[in-house]
Amino acid sequence: MKIIYRYILLEMIMPMLFGIAAFTSIFIGTNLLFEMIDYYNRFGVGLLTLGQLFFLNLPGIIVLTFPMATLLGVIMAYGRLSSDSEITALRAGGVSIYRLIIPALLLGLLVSGLTIVVNELVVPDANYRAAGIVYQFRYQRKMPLTQRHLFLTPFKGGKPDYVLYTELFDGDTGKMQNVVFQDYEDGRPSMLIQAEEAVWSEESWQFYRGQIFTLKAGERMPAWEFDEYRTVINYSPVQISKIQKKINDMDILELREFIQLKQGQGNNVNRELVKYHQRLSIPFASLIFALLAAPLAIQPQRSGGSATGLGLSIIIIFIYYSLMTVGAALGEQGSISPFCGAWLQNLVFLFFGSYMLYKMGN
Known about the structure:
- By secondary structure, the protein is an alpha+beta fold.
- About 65% of the residues lie in helices and about 20% in strands.
- The chain folds into two domains: about 1-140 and about 265-360, no CATH class; about 155-235, Lipopolysaccharide (LPS) transport protein A like domain (lipopolysaccharide transport protein A fold, Sandwich).
- The protein starts with a helix and ends with a helix.
- The mean pLDDT is about 85.
């Protein structure tokens, strides 16, 4: 039986590698190449820098092709075995349909795992480095970790814990300029701090040259001026900087922390939660595609060969990503849970794949 598994796996490898190369070329030719030309024409970017950008964008493109290539590989391999009556011979020899699809499921699971690893360990860092290079030649300076007019409003027990505003936050130096901090007790303002500057020091923020007002209902107490004042704000410069970071530049742990930070400020995080759950649902498309494609391709083939397999792959990919778009939109709007929105397309394809497998096995 192991020989049969190896034989079928080898049949899937070549068309899968072809799929990776073909789909990657399509993405490069329809998107990345035009970006490179635009950078060269508008900013005069050198060939070495363009080469860096090309290879930094490549991991993110390649992982997108893994599910598509897996689908193509499974359909082409099982379609060829079916058209040459090898499937018929194997089933006549006592090999059940369930055993026949094991190699496809193993390949799908392996590719899903590989996709997760590359997505978490390679793609976020590569995207962030690419964004830094683009920023540098656009604005002739290093991409800063700064933000103007920053607001932070964490909530505790459904009520605001405090409100922090700064005219300019510098994540590189851990400094804020022209800071206003309003503390709350049981949802009511209790203290107001105005300071020229705040600096991160020893796990807390040190305020400099400002005033403190103690607030009571209906009145504002006289100001207390200070040169230095330390207060507890449960956000470090690194955490504040992550609020600005793009989702595609985060790994799954950074994205989870980002969601917690936004939730702590009472913000709607449905969109971020959909993206978070998609970090697993999209890679597992390889396994889902393998489950659907194997019984679909095992059915008797009359004609068409490779062209039929490629056409069928494109149709399935279109339906899958259309469902993914609809599910993500519903999840972001709150019509369904973000988890269901991220996994909708997988659940639909899992149902149809399992149903087809059951019908063929009985």
